[in-house]
Structure formats: C-alpha cells, structure tokens
Amino acid sequence: MTKKKFIALTAFLSAFLIAVPFACNEKLAETKYTVNSDKISSPVKIAFLSDVHNTLYGRDMSELIGSVDRFMPDIVIFGGDLFDSQWEEANSQLLAKSLAKKYPCYYALGNHEFKYGAQDRVRNGAPSLGLNLLTLENNISDMDIKGNRIRIIGIDGTFFDDQYKSACDAVSDDVFSIFVYHYPEEFPEISKKGFDLTLSGHAHGGQWRFPPLLPNGVFSPGEGFFPKYTSGVYIENGSEMIVSRGLQRCPRDLVIPRIFNRPEVVFITLEP
Fold this sequence. Notes:
alpha/beta
C-alpha cells in the first residue's frame, strides 16, 4: 500500500469511527413545540409519549419519568404502541402507573397492541394503571385546564369507521380538540375534519434520517420508502399535526439501529 493510500484509508476509518457513535446516538431527546390557538386563554402543557414498546429508560424507568416530571405537564398523552408483545410487560406498566399517580394520563392504542392480540387485555388492564383509555366506548374526554376547555379524542389503532365518525362528530368550534391517532399518514384526510391538533407516532422518525438529504427518513411502516410524515409539525387545511419520532430503541423488537434519529419525548405548550 502506498503512503497516500494508507493516509486516505486511515482518514476514512477515523472519520467512520467518529461518525458512527454520533449517527447512532440513541440518547433520549426532549423536543418542545408551541401551538397557538384563539381557543386557548392560558398556557396548557402536554407531555406526549409514543411508541414506547416497553423500552427501558433507566432503573425503574427513572430517566423517562424524570424527563416528564421536569416539564411538569398538565396532562400526559400516550400515542399508541405503549406495549410491544404482551400486556404484562413491566417497563411500560411501571411508566404508566408512575405517571398516572401525578398527572391525568390518556392512552390511545397503536398497531402493536392489536398485532400481538393484546388489545382486550390492554382495555381491561389500563384502568388499573390509572390510564384513561380512549376507545369507541369512551373515546372522548372533556376537561377544564386553567380555564381552557380541552377535548381529547382518540380511536383504536386501526381505522374503524364507526370510531372515526364518532371522533369527527366530537369537533366543536368552542372547544380545543386534540385527536390522538397513531397513524400520521392519514393526515391529509384527518386535516379536513376540523381537529385543532392531531398527535401521532408510528413512523419512528423514518428510522434512518440523513438531513438535509433525507430529513424525513428512509422508511416508515405506514408510508413505505421516503415517507412524508415522520417527525415534527405538519399543517394542512388549517389543522396541525405533531408526529413523535417515538421512544423505541434497539434492541426492542427491531435490530435496525436509528441513524441521526434520537428517540424523543415530546413536550407541547398550548398558548393563546
């Protein structure tokens, strides 16, 4: 090997060894958004957790719980895939139970609760953890937070027509509506229904992100290759959607690492 080739190879390997840990960094990120609305008179703080998949975050889930506690939310919303392969998974149960002791917690199912046939056990067990489960039987929850009328609407993790119709019928001009729906790829249709804010997950940030070349990632389970709705804020037809990159990280369920795609907990402040 010539000296030039050796230097070039050494430089490449050095750059690779430096870049890989940075690119595959799966340390928890905290992402904050502000949503403004004429229906809001004073700030309301929401912690949004999606696609936990029973992933461990510190002893007794202390890292994730501590992150939420520092934000001091008024409500906590779980956006689906809280559980991975079975209802009895300890990490997700511990997380939900701990947060529900401090904050009102709302939970809409994702595809994984159905994928592993755990939906009935989830529905039956969620109240014991302190979770307010958003399903067809009880998919609308009204509350007053600091003088603001807030309506949380959710449906199960598959697109049931009867649940969707019930959710759309719950939209009101004088109440700020939050629609919790796991699948962001449905936003072009959902945005026409008048929801003030939609919260979604499922896309896992596109798994491999290469900004600025592929800022939305390489693949989403709902949109396939080169997806559009994977992370951040989207506005269509006067309606706003926030998509979480999710909290699953290797080796939970997938052995494919996240690249330039840190798992995140999302903090939202509703402002006048």
